[in-house]
Recover the amino acids of this structure.
């Protein structure tokens, strides 16, 4: 996770001026940074957990040593006292008693409000333990070195007061009610907004699910109706025709093939596009007519062409390849052609059919300017960093957009409006005015038109320079960069702005949405919901969903999984890339599709596999499809229909077979990612389950250490080694939670293969979990765990909370204290469907509560 | 401090021969003189025009220093003493591709074309050149040395080059199979040379208005949120100051130093579309940019490709409606075509003369003399003569003092491979080579009698 240079000072400013809940969230993100998820593991067994850290962890934990003797009595008196209304007075008495003790015995080390004291206990005293659990800790360990002085009622009183005043999440919310903060566009929002600003001048795209590329095969190299011999959809481009004809009616001596369609991108990042062709070709990309790779001349043995480009999730990029086999007086070389890519985190592969779209998408723009990373101190991207690096990047972005506007949008516009009057450069004025209205998310005021359009146009005679001036001004303006500066807009416009920002990370650019805003049609919840329902089906929203799932599963941490070469000789980067694609496809079908169901993440009865995966993971991953219902298979023609088509390692959806029938839990990508290079890691898996799937906070391990070597304990299973190493009571405070969850996945080895034994010993996959309400659940193996996660309140809360954060980028509490619980209810009622959930999230985000603090000096 | 007793002692100490005395004393200062020769900038421009020439109205009949400028070369009259004509240099590269393809593709590379699928008017189709062109080779050499390194190294200009990458449209090669696309849109070239600077100027001029808008809009939000906008404003104010300071440095300078000259941003006429009839204006715009770019020391090597091999400009401004290439196929006894071809080639020559004039009027930054004194323009062509497609006697006309060759002279080398001339360019630019392009044509080394 890269940090902006001013991150530290930015945080200080945030601390000072805003919202103490940040401290909590900040500490969460610190935890994520220090977390236990493995990094690339090298042969020297280097692990994230450092020895030095674990020592500190153990010191911290030692303050919380558990004393069984005191357990029952303190637990009972603690919780009853605060929850019973009849004993309100008693509760007050207890609180003041607790406060008094705190000030006398605790504040010296912990600070008045648990904020910590430098040189003593420096950390914030916050968490999600119950009063009873806190009491135990106090009885047992506090005050330091004099634990016996605060026991019984005293301990209860202190625990209750702490919990009520600052420790619990509720207390923190009470202390500083969350609010919706003004932020500027994040990097991603800037990219998406510019893409849609460009797109607003073209046709809007209809979502299209026919995969492959439309192909037209001509006899001879001239394109005429009577030389067109074949028109069809090719699944991929990977043909080898040699010296033969590519199809019926076509002579091998000269032909022309045009493939046309779209490239659908799942993940934002850098892509390398690779065309290998022994024949001349030209490739347009992003827009038909925008030349991307020019191999108009076939020359010598130059047959490989590579070009890198930044592309965005949820976008479909127009793509066209014109291939020429030209007649010539000498012998022709054999023809083969292949379209491949290296996607982020991937390896080179033929672009799979699932990423190709057979119809013609509208022209697109993808910003290539590198943008600095956003503030992630809240655990999700927020536009809070105002510094020169960011400012410079917005200038670069504006210049880049201006150049595409000059070379494409402006000439198009002139053609479309060639009959309009051009007196006093009227066409240019209306062109720039239209850009500004989309960029500003609403109509221009007179003074805005003066500043952003007229002044800039009048400053230069040259049209291209004028467009550049205007765009540099418009795209650096507060209206564009700060989407929430729209309180002077109509209700419907503001709703539209928030819907686009929430669901697309972008601005309203589609005709339907802009018209609804203009005609004031977004004033009731019903209409807002309808609009949101249309929007969640859009590819852009799908892209954002996928990003959210990747974050929820913390996949960015698993970029580079490597394994012990001797133990797992064929576990290489191509296999890992297949695994990642397989998981990606699983997520699509399980939750992203319109009929998705969150619970399928844990009991999907299908997997996506490939010949390579089957070879490594065995018969249960065979690619022979057992089901025919999948729509992707339906459109596939038999391979014989495509002369010269070369087989690839394409993923296929097949019936999942136990034990690989538990979605993400049994998926080898996660299981191998959450493991060491030679053994499993129940700790990594446990932390993953607690933190991400169950949404619980864990104190960061102040320390880290090297796990016990299996070589030194040849008789122990991994489970036993982990138990041995974490057996000290000090460790158990956290590890009793972590290990018990992680152990349930022990049936999957370090590469995610199922196993029943480790060495000679039977696997023990039993475990347990204490939920936020204090209930203990026990389970054995993945079946039980999967079933639990499907119905778990904690898991639902984690997922819904994560979804809100990712999509809205504001704290949900700012929209009302009850909103999260309401959303969880709606999620359950809506069959755990993510699209339904997003509609409800969008409705909440689109209608924020009126600002509580007076907006002084408003003269509107 | 060293004391010299006499002028003679000083000269001895300084290691100057008697022969050098006059030279040294003739210059304003000894140190200046030696420094200037040590770091003299050498620049080279290849100007390409297509379809061969009319030799009888092109080549001087008298060789040596007493040569006369014939009709096509008449525009060079003001620069006659800085001119070299070089008859008898032949593009002898054989292999794949038709005459026009090899004419342009082997002209600066001196090596064959790869087999390929571009079928021209010959038996064998071809692809791209098998080797680097001399301009790119020299650029790489100059860029490898910190003393001769420049921002771009080389610039590839074009005028009305068809928007199509094939063997007929590419003169310059970065290496085997690496054709370099010339930039024929002056606005695009401007952007390459001055874009960033221009953007900063624009930014600087709009920041004021933007700040007002930030202040205005910040009124609608809470005081807590306003703080973020205030940070933004403060940063913008700082940026504005920085930009003003930066841009002021550029404006205030009136000296001739190369660094400072880089701040002078030329002005192009507005809204000139890339179309045939605008060719004269586009040519001037590109030449302005080339001279400005060289003055700013953005590069020391350039190609200037007017149209392409088989180029078809219609020079309506000369009253010629037919395209150049079509006319060039007409037999010599077609008097009208013959006359028009003379006019067309004279027009190209006028452009070369204009470039020379612009360079001669521009003082050499940081030194005496003009930029033409330190720049050689090589005007060349894919063919010797249009209607017989010969690549013998390729028109090579040079102007200026960049290479340090003897000027004001007409040579006839009587049929040497042009590779030897390419080698001579390398040597004159300070980077001698054993061969350039196909070594089989290089055995006899560089051309003699040039210096």
């Amino acid at each position: 996770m890269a940090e902006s240079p001013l991150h530290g000072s930015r945080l200080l400013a945030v601390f000072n001026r805003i919202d103490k809940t940040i401290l909590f969230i900040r500490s969460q993100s610190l935890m994520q940074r220090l977390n236990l998820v493995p990094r690339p593991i090298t042969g020297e067994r280097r692990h994230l957990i450092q020895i030095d850290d674990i020592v500190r962890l153990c010191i911290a934990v030692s303050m919380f040593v558990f004393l069984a003797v005191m357990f029952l009595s303190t637990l009972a008196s603690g919780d009853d006292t605060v929850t019973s209304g009849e004993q309100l007075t008693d509760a007050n008495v207890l609180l003041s008693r607790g406060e008094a003790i705190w000030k006398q015995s605790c504040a010296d080390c912990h600070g008045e409000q648990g904020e910590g004291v430098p040189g003593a206990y420096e950390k914030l005293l916050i968490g999600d333990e119950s009063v009873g659990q806190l009491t135990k800790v106090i009885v047992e360990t506090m005050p330091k070195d004099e634990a016996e002085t605060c026991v019984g009622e005293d301990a209860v009183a202190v625990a209750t007061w702490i919990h009520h005043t600052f420790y619990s999440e509720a207390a923190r919310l009470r202390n500083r009610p969350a609010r919706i903060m003004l932020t500027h566009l994040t990097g991603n929002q800037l990219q998406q907004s510019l893409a849609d600003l460009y797109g607003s001048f073209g046709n809007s795209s209809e979502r299209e699910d026919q995969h492959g590329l439309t192909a037209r095969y001509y006899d001879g190299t001239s394109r005429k109706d009577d030389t067109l011999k074949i028109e069809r959809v090719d699944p991929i481009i990977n043909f080898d025709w040699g010296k033969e004809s590519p199809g019926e009616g076509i002579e091998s001596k000269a032909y022309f093939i045009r493939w046309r369609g779209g490239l659908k991108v799942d993940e934002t990042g850098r892509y390398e596009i690779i065309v290998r062709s022994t024949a001349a070709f030209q490739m347009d990309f992003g827009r038909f007519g925008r030349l991307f790779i020019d191999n108009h001349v076939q020359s010598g043995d130059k047959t490989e062409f590579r070009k890198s480009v930044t592309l965005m999730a949820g976008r479909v990029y127009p793509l066209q390849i014109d291939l020429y086999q030209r007649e010539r007086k000498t012998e022709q070389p054999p023809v083969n052609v292949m379209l491949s890519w290296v996607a982020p985190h991937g390896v080179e592969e033929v672009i799979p059919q699932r990423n190709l779209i057979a119809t013609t998408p509208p022209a697109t723009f993808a910003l290539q300017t590198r943008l600095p990373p956003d503030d992630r101190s809240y655990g999700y991207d927020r536009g809070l960093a105002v510094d020169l690096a960011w400012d410079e990047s917005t200038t670069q972005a504006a210049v880049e957009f201006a150049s595409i506007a000059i070379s494409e949008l402006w000439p198009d516009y002139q053609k479309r409006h060639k009959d309009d009057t051009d007196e006093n450069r009227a066409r240019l004025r209306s062109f720039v005015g239209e850009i500004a209205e989309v960029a500003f998310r609403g109509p221009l005021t007179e003074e805005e038109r003066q500043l952003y359009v007229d002044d800039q146009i009048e400053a230069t005679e040259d049209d291209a320079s004028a467009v550049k001036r205007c765009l540099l001004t418009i795209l650096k303006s507060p209206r564009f960069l700060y989407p929430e500066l729209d309180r002077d807009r109509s209700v419907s416009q503001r709703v539209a702005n928030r819907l686009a920002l929430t669901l697309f990370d972008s601005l309203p650019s589609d005709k339907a949405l802009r018209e609804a805003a203009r005609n004031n049609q977004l004033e009731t919840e019903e209409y807002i919901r309808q609009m949101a329902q249309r929007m969640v089906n859009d590819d852009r929203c799908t892209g954002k969903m996928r990003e959210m799932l990747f974050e929820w599963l913390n996949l960015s941490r698993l970029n580079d999984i490597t394994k012990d070469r001797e133990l797992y000789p064929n576990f290489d980067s191509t296999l890992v890339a297949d695994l990642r694609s397989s998981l990606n496809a699983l997520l699509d079908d399980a939750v992203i599709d319109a009929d998705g169901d969150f619970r399928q993440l844990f009991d999907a009865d299908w997997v996506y596999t490939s010949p390579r995966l089957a070879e490594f993971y065995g018969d249960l991953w065979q690619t022979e499809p057992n089901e025919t219902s999948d729509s992707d298979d339906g459109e596939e023609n038999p391979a014989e229909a495509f002369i010269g088509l070369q087989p690839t390692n394409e993923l296929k959806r097949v019936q999942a077979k136990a034990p690989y029938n538990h979605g993400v839990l049994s998926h080898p990508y996660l299981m191998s990612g959450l493991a060491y290079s030679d053994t499993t890691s129940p700790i990594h898996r446990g932390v993953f389950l607690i933190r991400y799937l169950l949404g619980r906070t864990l104190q960061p391990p102040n320390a880290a250490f090297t796990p016990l070597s299996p070589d030194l304990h040849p008789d122990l299973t991994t489970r036993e080694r982990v138990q041995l190493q974490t057996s000290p009571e000090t460790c158990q405070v956290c590890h009793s939670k972590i290990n018990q969850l992680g152990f349930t996945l022990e049936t999957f080895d370090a590469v995610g293969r199922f196993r029943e034994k480790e060495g000679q010993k039977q696997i023990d996959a039993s475990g347990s979990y204490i939920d936020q309400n204090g209930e203990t659940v026990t389970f054995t193996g993945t079946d039980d765990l999967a079933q639990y996660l499907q119905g778990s309140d904690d898991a639902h809360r984690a997922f819904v909370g994560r979804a809100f954060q990712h999509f809205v980028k504001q704290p949900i509490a700012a929209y009302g204290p009850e909103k999260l619980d309401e959303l969880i209810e709606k999620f359950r009622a809506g069959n755990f469907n993510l699209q339904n959930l997003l509609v409800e999230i969008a409705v909440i985000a689109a209608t924020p509560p009126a600002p509580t603090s007076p907006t002084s000096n408003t003269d509107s | 401090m060293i004391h010299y007793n006499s002028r003679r002692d000083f000269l001895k100490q300084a290691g100057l021969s008697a022969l050098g005395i006059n030279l040294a004393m003739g210059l304003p200062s000894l140190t200046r003189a030696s420094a200037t020769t040590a770091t003299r900038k050498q620049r080279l421009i290849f100007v390409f025009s297509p379809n061969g020439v009319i030799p009888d109205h092109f080549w001087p009949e008298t060789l040596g220093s007493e040569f006369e400028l014939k009709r096509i070369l008449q525009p060079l009259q003001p620069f006659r003493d800085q001119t070299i004509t070089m008859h008898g240099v032949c593009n002898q590269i054989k292999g794949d591709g038709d005459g026009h393809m090899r004419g342009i593709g082997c002209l600066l590379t001196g090596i064959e074309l790869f087999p390929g699928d571009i079928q021209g008017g010959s038996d064998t189709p071809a692809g791209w050149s098998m080797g680097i062109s001399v301009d790119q080779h020299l650029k790489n050499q100059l860029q490898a040395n910190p003393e001769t390194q420049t921002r771009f190294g080389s610039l590839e200009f074009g005028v009305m080059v068809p928007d199509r990458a094939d063997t007929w449209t590419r003169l310059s090669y970065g290496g085997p199979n690496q054709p370099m696309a010339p930039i024929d849109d002056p606005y695009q070239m401007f952007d390459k040379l001055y874009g960033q600077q221009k953007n900063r100027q624009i930014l600087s001029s709009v920041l004021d208005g933007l700040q007002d808008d930030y202040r205005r809009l910040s009124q609608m939000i809470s005081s807590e949120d306003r703080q973020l906008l205030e940070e933004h404003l403060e940063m913008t104010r700082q940026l504005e100051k920085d930009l003003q300071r930066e841009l002021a440095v550029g404006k205030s300078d009136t000296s001739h130093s190369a660094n400072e000259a880089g701040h002078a941003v030329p002005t192009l006429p507005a809204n000139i579309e890339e179309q045939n009839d605008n060719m004269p204006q586009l040519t001037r715009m590109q030449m302005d940019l080339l001279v400005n770019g060289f003055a700013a020391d953005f590069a020391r090597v350039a190609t200037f490709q007017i149209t392409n091999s088989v180029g078809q400009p219609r020079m309506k401004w000369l009253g010629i409606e037919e395209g150049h290439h079509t006319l060039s196929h007409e037999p010599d006894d077609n008097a009208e075509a013959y006359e028009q071809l003379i006019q067309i080639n004279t027009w190209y020559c006028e452009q070369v003369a204009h470039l020379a004039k612009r360079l001669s009027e521009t003082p050499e930054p940081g030194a005496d003399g003009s930029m033409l004194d330190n720049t050689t323009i090589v005007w060349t062509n894919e063919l010797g003569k249009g209607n017989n497609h010969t690549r013998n006697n390729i028109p090579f006309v040079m102007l200026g003092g960049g290479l340090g060759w003897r000027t004001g002279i007409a040579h006839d080398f009587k049929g040497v491979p042009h590779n030897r001339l390419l080698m001579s360019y390398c040597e004159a630019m300070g980077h001698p080579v054993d061969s350039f392009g196909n070594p089989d044509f290089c055995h006899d080394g560089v051309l003699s009698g040039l210096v």
Notes: Chain B has two domains: 37-185+274-441, 195-267.
